[in-house]
Amino acid sequence: MAEPSGSGDSISLECPGLDTAAGEEFLQEVFQILLEEGVRKSTDVTQKVCDWKEPQELRDLLDLELRSDGEGRERLLQRCRDVLRFSVRTGHPRFFNQLFSGLDHHALAGRFLTETLNTSPYTYEVAPVLVLMEEQVLAKLRELVGWSSGDGIFAPGGSMSNMLAMNVARFRRFPESRSRGNWDLPRLGLFASQESHYSILKGAALLGIGTDNVHLVRTDERGKMIPEELEKEIQRVKAEVPSTRWTPSPTSVPATGYGCMWTADSVTWNPHKLLMVGLQCSAFLLHDSSGLLQRCHGVGASYLFQRDKFYDVSLDTGDKSPQCGRRADSLKLWILWKAVGTRGLAQRVERAFSATRYLLEQVKRREGFQLVMEPEFINLCFWFIPPSLRGQENSPEFWDKLGKVAPAIKEKMIRRGSMMVGYQPQGSHVNFFRQIITNPAVTRQDLDFFLDEIQELGWDL
Amino acid sequence: MAEPSGSGDSISLECPGLDTAAGEEFLQEVFQILLEEGVRKSTDVTQKVCDWKEPQELRDLLDLELRSDGEGRERLLQRCRDVLRFSVRTGHPRFFNQLFSGLDHHALAGRFLTETLNTSPYTYEVAPVLVLMEEQVLAKLRELVGWSSGDGIFAPGGSMSNMLAMNVARFRRFPESRSRGNWDLPRLGLFASQESHYSILKGAALLGIGTDNVHLVRTDERGKMIPEELEKEIQRVKAEVPSTRWTPSPTSVPATGYGCMWTADSVTWNPHKLLMVGLQCSAFLLHDSSGLLQRCHGVGASYLFQRDKFYDVSLDTGDKSPQCGRRADSLKLWILWKAVGTRGLAQRVERAFSATRYLLEQVKRREGFQLVMEPEFINLCFWFIPPSLRGQENSPEFWDKLGKVAPAIKEKMIRRGSMMVGYQPQGSHVNFFRQIITNPAVTRQDLDFFLDEIQELGWDL
Question: Strand A282-286 to strand A369-371: parallel, antiparallel, or no bridges (unpaired)?
Fold first, then answer.
């Protein structure tokens, strides 16, 4: 057998090569640091949201280099404190920058449990609890979608879930694609809303479909796909590329963890967003219960999915996924659900709507704030017009100048550490703020602060 | 704007919708349960590896159903205990069933930190520490591979890393594949070892290449691809399918976290295996430093990767991945590396070799144990031949009967909870045990127990 580069047999196997007592002590200390510097400060509105450092300054502060020798306990504990100190507090009530904002203690406990278990829910034998839990959580999510039967799997993020949907759609219409590739199929076309998530383009590239074959369909002023435009686009593509086929199903509907659903063959549901269970938790739900998912992705690796096991091997669900080892993302959602019930989850969704409604009123009422469009869901998109630009809406440079305002305000808020929110341009709209409140810890006071702060930071621009 | 199904404005925004004090108390209690029932018992050799329950029995015990109302603290804490109790102890010194066996306390602390931070290393603004850490860890892994420059990204598991390698290889040779799909390319062929991981087949299906276009090349008796066979297979495919193109690069070499490397354009390295950092940690490393990865996967979503940010946006590395939100998998490896140093990691690898060597000697020495092949790395594959089958090696039913032995022993060990190890058939070889020791907590005594236990459980078969 091959020899490693080092000494080999000089290593004694008589004693364990890990010091569990010291390890447990270390974990205890790290946990107290986590609780104080991580959890408590992350949720404390009087703390800063971030402590901005330039990249080189931060590199120097963190001393990231990995060396030959290990470090002592005190040094390591200080490193843990530094990591927390210089990271952005995504659980803070004034962190609005991402859809995964907020910190739920039950879900975090579920994540700690998951990390401690350290197993993959691909077979019942190594993850009996987690396989059954995933089965239950998926069934419950499907039930909320309105399906009494079906299938599904957790995927590493919503983009991957969307790609699974695209792959299953191709396979359902052209089962031979799996073995023969795309070459024997007609050129496929993928029709999506022009406001669809960028994972559709990424998926088209990865799946060998090609981004040119993604046809983006016009939306109305509220961002919804116009059905007549879809019909027109299909006819246009059919005429231009006669060999293109399109299949309307399984259509995938990206949802954000919410109760209003559409008619679809599959749904991507990301409880790591609105339901705040922590990165990552994305369920790919399928209405089909004929085993499509398994037929599409399954390969039956003989070292994992042995058919001669002594238990019901239909519980070895891992082959439904293109992944092999896979994180158990259902546990954190399950424990949160047990803690607050469906009712408690619904209240959070309702609170998110209330917060959006409140902010909408304020934006409409305050001078200098202008809506990009009436919110359709809980996305509130608006511009802040500094006094220097007010009344110049018809001047030729207005929009160009306004497009520079959001980035400038954003820089100021990050340097101050007072809050974080996203901005973006879209289509003909120059940079605007995009506020989505998912964290139930956010109060009216935080929302007032949010608008006051934008006003203050943008006043002199 | 749309209304949620519930009451809406009845929800008051005056107070936070989360009770942080109760949440912190809950976390404290869960942590103590984790430490005792999870960490300590998981690493204690006197405990059982698993407490087997039939699926229906386990469903009843766990009461998995998700209901309208939430549950009280005591009930939830009991649920956490139950989850730990009925899960398999993958950190146990006698859990050999998977390559992610073992529990390292430093890495676990890193996982807890990661979960507390709950952010995605796609942009510097929301993950400054984690972006720089990923940069450092990837550079260090590349350095061990032998590359002074290059690129890379963490992916959700080795299978996904392998798929990234396949996609980048296609894109490098045929950049137009990204926009045009596979239709305008010649039929691609993918040549891989017949012992290659099943993710190659899964990837070929997902990427629209097709499993029929994967050509498995014969290996020698040690499981290594035979170069002449590769050449022959290429010639055969070229002759049969004249339009097939093959590109030898970027070749991807799946590694298990170990120092002996090959000439390759890309490497998949899974520190969640031999380096024991916890699921998931898979680095896709690329020798190219021309920005191939970004060009292959990047889409430039305007709500994340704004070009008008005030800092160096080359640090917004998320667009190199087909994922959007992505877990920060580098931190757990970084903290472990800081704790034990490169030297400490190397010692673990050496210990794994020592353990394999010891077990190899024992298997050769013990009656009734028979090697499948000399181990090439740290995979030790062997049969146990029960006394009833000994001396019948030439009888027509011998192999058929032997193939039933490993599953029978496996069932007994799981029901007893004494240990867990994988078995599998491969090619013409009937079911054999596949032992891979990665956990440095494993002692000589555990290895002796391992063989004794197989012998005892298989004696009467």
Answer: unpaired
